[in-house]
Amino acid sequence: MRAALTATRLTRRFGERVAVDDASLTLEAGEIFALLGPNGAGKTTTLRMLAGLIEPTSGTVMIGGESMTRASAPRLRGRIGFLTEAPGLWDRLTVRQNLMVYAELHGLDRPARAVDATLDLFGIRDRAGDAAAQLSKGLKQRVALARTLLHEPQVVLLDEPTSGLDPESARDLRGLVLRLREQGRAVLLSTHNLDEVERIADRVAVLRRTVVALGTPAALRARLFGARIRVVFDGPADAWVAAAEGPGILERLAEDNRLSLAVDDATLRAPELVVRLVGAGARIQAVLPEEASLEQVYLRLLEEGAPA
Amino acid sequence: MTRILALLRKELVDIRGNRSLFMPALISGAFSLLLPFFVAVLVPALSGERLSDSIDFRVALELYRAQPITTALEPEAAIQAWLFQQFLVLLAFTPITAAMSVAAYAVIGEKQARTLEPLLATPISTVELIAAKVLGAFLPSLVLAVGCYLVYLALIVMLALPGVWTVLLLPRSLATMFVLAPLATLAALQLAVCVSSRVNDARSAQQIGALIILPLSGLMVAQLMGGVQLTAGVLAWIALGLGLFNVGLMRLAVVLFDRESILTRWT
Predict the structure, then answer these.
(1) Which residues on chain B are in Cβ contact (under 8 Å) with A53?
(2) Phi, psi of B200 (to 5 degrees)
(3) What are the residues whose beta carbons fall under 8 Å from the beta carbon of B34, sequence distance 6 or more?
(4) Neighbours of B86 (CB within 10 A)
């Protein structure tokens, strides 16, 4: 199947400064892909190149198998929905007027009907007559997302979609993004919110000018931290560090009544470990799989600058 | 065309909600409307001197008498008619001022409100975007020009000598107000759009766009000094020059509107 979006060896220079260097990624239909990176890592520049707003210095962007060129960009932009970091609504226009302008700019056959359907889909019909200036930040972001999806794009690019939103608005917005995946759209999400990525992203790319790492959150965890097991004792864990030694045990860290172990294969090593510890007289309360948080993975990647 | 109309509608709604943009134009309009009445009606009434007693005005009148419509007027009325026609150029400044205020914000306003990036992410082309921006400033200024002209005409009917108002219906007067003024307005606002694509503050755009007022002011002074008579031929040449200038400016505006630098250098 053809990828919804393919970026190959994208580089963008602004004078002497290299904003993005040799970044490649592929986005499939029905996938939520998160782009992580510190401030100034080139996320927004990458999104702008993918959205056809700025040209890469070198490299290519393909949307549904069609190459983005100066000539094809206006047409291909019609297949992309780009939610910019700021909602960018015209304050003096009503919600409906804002959406109508975009429906017409995208050349929709029945713009008024499309706007009505979108207002219903996003649950904002009751605010359709309100000026955008009167909306809360969360509602503005919701209207901006509605505007982004009005023309039913196959590729959706979201730049910091939940930045500055309250938890309830952020949750609602995440729900809308998950619905996009169900509809088979390809979603690329740039964010600093690792918890959000953990909840909704199928794959992650860490960008620091170039793609430092790319994969599913689980694969990145396994690659950087391996499998881990946590054993909780009825008493201090220090006493059982030596007894935990054995085949496949790579690292042992005791803290209070918890022993954290890096292992080569958690499924295989956990039963063996329990047998050894119980045999040595340990009283075990729980044995749990231990996962590094995505935050740990992200920070480790940035520290190491690991290649993709 | 659909995209131009869509954005034009938005511009007009946006302008309607931001009436303070027209305040400079209203002040300029009021000044342009009242000044000729001050010179042609109020000063003679207060001083008790007739305009036709002035040697300077009589010389001007001799030149002006070439227009058939004025031969039917008494000397005093003919001088009033001459003055009201000369000041029409001043009235043309009103739509220019209005257009400048709107156009200077055309790109900078969008950028400052952070509405430009989502707009550029649509299939709209640069030509469509600029056309909508220019028309969005031009149409209200045209309405203002018609409004000013009608008020000017009504005030002349009420305050000037009988028959003076007929000079405002001469082709030369109509051409000044509805050909020369719109073309100059178009040039001024295209200049403002060009500049607003390259600078970060609306005032710079307004100041540079306002340069178009200089040749018009010169034209008015030259007229009053008797150096230039705005005959049909002169007006046609000026209109042709302004038309060509506008075509050139439209092309320049498209070239200067660099999406990338607007997005990446303005923070």
Answers:
(1) 117, 120-121, 259-260, 263
(2) -100, -10
(3) none
(4) 19
Beta carbons within 8 Å of B231's beta carbon, 6+ residues apart? B172
Query: May I ask the CATH class of domain A5-215?
Result: alpha beta
Residues B132-171 as b or e (16 or more Cβ within 10 Å = b) = bbbbbbbbbbbebbeebbeebbebbeeebbebbbbbbebe
Q: Give residue-wise pLDDT tens across range B123-173.
A: 998 889 888 988 888 888 888 888 888 999 999 999 888 888 888 888 888
Q: Which residues in chain B have Cβ-Cβ distances shorter than 8 Å to A45?
A: 264
Among A77, A89, A101, the residue with its CB nearest the CB of B123 is: A77
What is the layout of strands, in order, in the sheet containing A284-290? A249-255, A258-263, A227-233, A284-290
Q: Which residue of B has its CA nearest to A109?
A: B2
Q: How confident is the model at residue A49 (pLDDT cuts 50, 70, 90)?
A: very high
The answer to whether A260 and A232 have CB atoms below 8 angstroms apart is no
> What is the rounded distance in angstroms from the CA atom of residue B38 to the CA atom of residue A110?
56
Hey, how many other C-beta atoms are within 10 angstroms of the C-beta on A45? 23
Q: Where are the beta strands (DSSP E) in chain A?
A: 5-14, 17-27, 32-36, 58-63, 66-67, 80-83, 155-159, 186-190, 203-208, 210-215, 227-233, 249-255, 258-263, 284-290
> Could you give the residue range(s) of every CATH 3.30.70.2470 domain in chain A?
221-292
Q: Which of B10, B116, B121 sits opposite A51 (nearest CB)?
A: B121
SS3 content of chain A, % helix, strand, coil (to 5): 40, 30, 35
List the CATH code of the domain at A221-292.
Answer: 3.30.70.2470
If you compute the radius of gyration of chain B from its CA atoms, what whole number of angstroms results?
Answer: 21
Whole domain around residue B117: which residue ranges? 2-265
Which tens digit of pLDDT belongs to each residue from A218-257? 777 777 667 788 999 998 999 999 998 988 888 888 989 9
CATH 3.40.50.300 boundaries in chain A: 5-215
3-state secondary structure string across B97-139:
HHHHHHHHHHHHHHHHCCCHHHHHCCCCCHHHHHHHHHHHHHH
Task: Tell me which of A90, A100, A149 to substitute to probe the interface with B (most B C-beta atoms closer than 10 Å).
Answer: A90
Among candidates B2, B6, B14 on the partner chain, residue whose Cβ is nearest the Cβ of A92: B14
Domain count, chain B: 1
Put simply, the answer to whether A53 touches B18 (Cβ < 8 Å) is no
Maximum separation of any 2 CA atoms in chain A, in Å:
75
Chain B residue with minimal CA distance to A101? B6
